[in-house]
Amino acid sequence: MYAEIIIPLALPKNYTWSVPDHFLQEIKPGCRVEVNLGRNKKYAGIVKRIHDEKPIGFEAKEIMNVLDAEPIIQPFQLLLWKWMAEYYMCTEGEVMAAALPAHFKLSSETVIIYNEEFGDDFSGLDNDEYRFAELLLSTVTITLRYINPNTGTFDISTFPNGRIFRRNVFTIIGVSK
Questions:
Q1: In terms of domains, do 115 and 94 share one?
Q2: pTM for the full model?
Q3: What is the pLDDT of residue 86?
């Protein structure tokens, strides 16, 4: 199986990634997935459609992770994004970048800062969240590119759905280009 993914960039078209067997039951149109674009750039993209058409001329990379249990974008919204891209002569990725809040558009270039109002009591966080909060407290500002190789044991792209995000330990301030 394959999935056409919308990436929040001005790309000339949407790209296709292969869906690993262990994600077949989880992946749905409208869900966010983590994908590699290029050698070491990671993005959270939206699944536009799932299909069985093998891409011609290249070997599709595998989706790295499914980030949502349920779709965050509904089918009518995907149709609206397509219409907007055609009407305003832009890409669906540019529409996605404008339509979604920053914490839904994680990439390896996303900048995260520590929320000083939270304080430094991390007793309510689990082990991985605690280690991330300590790392963030000691560096004040970091990017996901910096986090992923150094932690190795957890995936920051899942934190917007976890306690560390709900407790306002950090703030996602956007994507640096």
A1: no
A2: 0.68
A3: 96
* Residue 51 placed within a domain: yes
Q: In this structure, are 86 and 149 located in the same domain? A: no
Give the number of other CB atoms < 10 A from CB of residue 76.
Answer: 8
Q: In terms of domains, do 15 and 37 share one?
A: yes
Instruction: Please indicate, yes or no, whether residues 82 and 10 belong to a single structural domain of this protein.
Output: yes
DSSP 105: S
**At 31, phi and psi to the nearest 5?**
-85, 155
Phi-psi region of 166 (alpha: psi -120 to 50; beta: other; left: phi over 0): alpha
Instruction: Please tell me whether residues 171 and 145 are part of one structural domain.
Output: yes
**Ramachandran quadrant class, 102 (left: phi over 0; alpha: psi -120 to 50; beta: rest):** alpha
Please count the structural domains in the chain.
2
Q: Flag whether pLDDT at 135 surpasses 90.
A: no
At 104, the pLDDT band (50, 70, 90 cuts) reads: confident
Q: Assess if residue 26 is contained within a domain.
A: yes
Torsion-angle region of 41 (φ positive above 0: left; ψ -120 to 50: alpha; else: beta): beta
Residue 170 pLDDT exceeds 70: no
Which residue has tokens 């002569």?
Answer: 89
Residue 90, pLDDT > 90, answer yes
* 8 A C-beta contact, residue 10 and residue 29: no
